[in-house]
Write a structure and sequence with these properties.
- The chain has nine helices and nine strands.
- It is α/β, with parallel strands linked by helices and 309 residues long.
- It has two domains: 146 residues, Aspartate/ornithine carbamoyltransferase (Rossmann fold, 3-Layer(aba) Sandwich); 154 residues, Aspartate/ornithine carbamoyltransferase (Rossmann fold, 3-Layer(aba) Sandwich), CATH 3.40.50.
- α5 packs across α9.
- It is globular.
- 47% of the residues are buried.
- Bound molecules: N-carbamoyl-L-aspartate.
- The site of N-carbamoyl-L-aspartate has 10 residues, from α2 and α6.
């Protein structure tokens, strides 16, 4: 049996570092945060969060900062590395050793895949990975699971399609590691060039019942969840390759006509043309609610790693 104390001081770098009991525990705590998000709390009073964002972000950074403030703590940080000494050429580990003096927990997003791990090694305070290149985005996976639970009441037994850029999409990789702890059927839907990374597939081999396909049409009527992702333009080594696949999918109201009436459509956002705004006013649209779950999950994570739950 685990309890809150097993999370105190812990880094959150990869979803593959967590087992089912731990994930379920975090999700339970996130649910307990829902009323606190409404009325506020002083559980983290006197604690300081640093958000170090070396890549663009709207939801992830603001929801972490909001989570900290709603629990009575404070937040510092930068969203543009050009304004920090990184612009003078300071190394990541020196930057982290600096921030370590000023904050009790560090949230980092960085274009390099190993950055969160390096930061975790350099810091004495807990480090939370908010996106490491195209590799992982573990807190997104946790909020995705929390949204699935809220919409479906369970995770086991579901049929989930993950569609779009499975090669460069870090949310997809963390979601796969997370889903490997549950009994689910996963359909990996992508253009051939954007099939899921082989190392991620290897990591979940034998744990997830999956099928790779290019065409979502035939699956639609049997799906419980459709998780749509953006083609990650900024990760393509050759812009011409992006041009070839950017319009691969458009999930719109007309396409969803053949779907189960309870199909849940999710998206980590931001969306481009892969998810039409005409889906927004259908009962399938869960992607706006999904963002709210990010707040609950990040409140729970901050309180857990700071040992205040
Ligand atoms: C995602 C990311 O940054 O990986 N955004 C997010 O955190 N919600 C997805 C994306 O950028 O497509």
């Amino acid at each position: 049996m685990i309890d809150a104390s097993s999370f105190k001081g812990r880094d959150i770098v990869s979803m593959s570092d967590f087992d089912r009991e731990e994930i379920d525990f975090i999700l339970d705590k996130a649910t307990e945060m829902e009323p606190l998000a409404e009325r506020g709390s002083d559980r983290l009073r006197g604690r300081i969060l640093a958000t170090l964002f070396f890549e663009p972000s709207t939801r992830t950074r603001l929801s972490f900062e909001s989570a900290m403030l709603r629990l009575g703590g404070g937040a510092i940080g930068f969203a543009e590395p050009q304004v920090s000494s990184v612009a003078k050429g300071e190394s990541l580990s020196d930057t982290i050793k600096t921030v370590d003096n000023y904050a009790d927990v560090i949230v980092i997003r960085h274009p390099e895949e190993g950055a969160a791990r390096i930061a975790a090694e350099a810091a004495s305070v807990p480090v939370i990975n908010a996106g490491s290149g195209s590799l992982e985005h573990p807190t997104q996976a946790l909020l995705d699971l929390h949204t699935i639970l809220a919409s479906k009441g369970r995770i086991d037994g579901l049929r989930i399609a993950v569609l779009g850029d499975l090669l460069y999409g870090r949310t997809v990789h963390s979601l796969m590691y997370a889903l490997a702890n549950y009994r689910v059927k996963v359909y990996l839907v992508s253009p051939r060039q954007l099939r899921i990374r082989r190392d991620v597939l290897k990591g979940v081999e034998g744990k997830i019942d999956y099928v790779e396909t290019e065409d979502p049409g035939p699956l639609l009527k049997d799906l419980d969840v459709l998780y749509v992702t953006r083609i990650q333009k900024e990760r393509f080594p050759d812009p011409a390759d992006y041009e070839r696949v950017k319009g691969a999918y458009t999930i719109d109201k007309a396409f969803l006509k053949g779907a189960d009436k309870d199909l849940v459509v999710m998206h980590p956002l931001p969306r481009m043309t892969e998810l039409s705004t005409d889906v927004d006013d259908t009962p399938h649209a869960w992607y706006f609610k999904q963002m709210r779950h990010g707040l609950y999950v990040r409140m729970a994570l901050l309180a857990l790693v700071l040992g205040r739950l």
